[in-house]
Design goal:
Blueprint lengths: L11 H10 L5 E9 L2 E5 L4 E6 L1 H6 L12 E6 L4 E7 L6 E4 L7 E5 L4 E7 L6 H13 L3 E7 L6 H14 L5 E3 L9 H4 L7 E5 L6 H9 L23 E5 L5 E4 L13 H6 L1 H7 L16 H8 L4 H45 L1
Parallel strand pairs: 3-5, 8-9, 8-11, 9-10, 11-13
Antiparallel strand pairs: 1-2, 1-4, 1-12, 2-3, 4-5, 6-7, 12-13
């Protein structure tokens, strides 16, 4: 992907940081595709295939610190088609998830994101609880979430109304749009949300139509899509890396591989922000550490008894809060183990020096 740095989202603060630290022969660029430790970086006029410098790799503390799609980096071109990344510029709007198969490791999905476009399919596998999870991850990173009910042409208008109401009752104020790539005007509501200069990240399970939506918004095929499975009647998962595209209207968009579940990788602030009604009710609980289970004087349980709060909302909130706390406890345990290991290594080195 080419275009000026400004069209890629280069801001005055990023330019100021680059000017303060860059060395001769280096230039700024934005990661437009990440696949393992290979990166395609746009410098404005050209795209370079890049690897990490050994010094940068040795400084990266964990998986979440490695460059990801959307990151702004400082690199040195090696030739007309390749380069070496020497540093990352300060991040914002970083989408994190718990790394697959690990209790305490986080993984960056995308960086410098303004809007999280949470896509659900209208025809099957719709889950408000899954939307809860995506919203929590987005709000933990101070990213504005919107919900998109895709494939609206496959169900009745009444069914679409019920799905919209289900989301709005759980998340009042969340903007919900419907979309269809086969209906005239089926993308206008979504286009209106993708503003020039902003970077949007499409999130959702495999088969909900994220890549098809991006292709329709682009006006041509740029993201890989798969045929519908005869067994499940769902689109097959085809996206294997995170790629940034520039839409005709000036917005930037990142497609992501289908992820049915994203493990929470924050301390729970995103969960609290996603369930503002429960958070506000909890302030009136008799006990400040109320678990909203069996305690007397629980304002949240009282709201459920009165019918003003849905039990399903509390169940989802408690489940996500427990998950966030487990991740934080596991991460803290890992940090303690690493500190203990570091102290042991230092002690061994001191004893070795003393012997010599």
């Amino acid at each position: 992907m080419t275009g000026t740095l400004e069209e890629l989202g280069y801001t005055a603060s990023l330019r100021e940081h680059y000017n303060s630290v860059a060395a001769e022969g280096q230039c700024p660029g934005r990661v437009v595709e990440a696949f393992q430790e290979l990166y395609t970086v746009s410098t404005g006029g050209r795209a370079l295939r890049c690897t990490l410098s050994g010094r940068l790799r040795s400084r990266l503390a964990d998986r979440a610190a490695y460059p990801t799609t959307g990151d702004w980096v400082i690199l040195a071109p090696a030739d007309a088609t390749s380069g070496v990344i020497h540093d990352l510029m300060p991040r914002r709007g970083v989408l994190l998830r718990r790394a697959a198969g690990e209790r305490s490791a986080a993984q960056a999905i995308a960086s410098h994101i303004d809007v999280a476009v949470i896509v659900q399919s209208a025809d099957r596998d719709f889950s408000v609880n899954r939307i809860d999870r995506y919203i929590s991850i987005a709000r933990a990173a101070d990213i504005r979430p919107i919900a998109v009910i895709n494939k609206a042409d496959l169900v009745s208008p009444e069914a679409i109304g019920e799905l919209c109401a289900a989301i709005s009752s759980r998340h009042p104020g969340l903007h919900v749009v419907t979309s269809s790539v086969v209906e005239t005007g089926g993308l206008e509501g979504l286009r209106a949300e993708l503003l020039p200069g902003e970077t949007c990240c499409f999130l959702g399970s495999s088969g909900v139509g994220k890549s098809t939506l991006i292709n329709a918004l682009m006006g041509h095929e740029c993201a890989a899509t798969g045929a519908v499975s005869e067994a499940t009647q769902r689109g097959r998962h085809t996206t294997t890396s995170r790629t940034l595209f520039a839409l005709p209207g000036g917005a930037l968009v990142i497609d992501t591989p289908g992820m049915r579940e994203l493990g929470l990788a924050d301390s729970g602030a995103g969960v609290e922000d996603s369930f503002a009604e429960i958070r506000d009710l909890a302030r009136a609980c008799r006990f400040s550490d109320c678990s909203h289970q069996e305690e007397p004087g629980c304002a949240v349980r009282a709201a459920i008894d009165e019918g003003s709060l849905a039990p399903a909302a509390l169940d989802s909130y408690l489940r996500l809060r427990r998950e966030a706390r487990r991740f934080e406890q596991s991460a803290a345990e890992l940090r303690r183990t690493e500190r203990k290991h570091g102290k042991m290594i230092k002690q061994i080195l001191r004893e070795k020096r003393d012997r010599w």
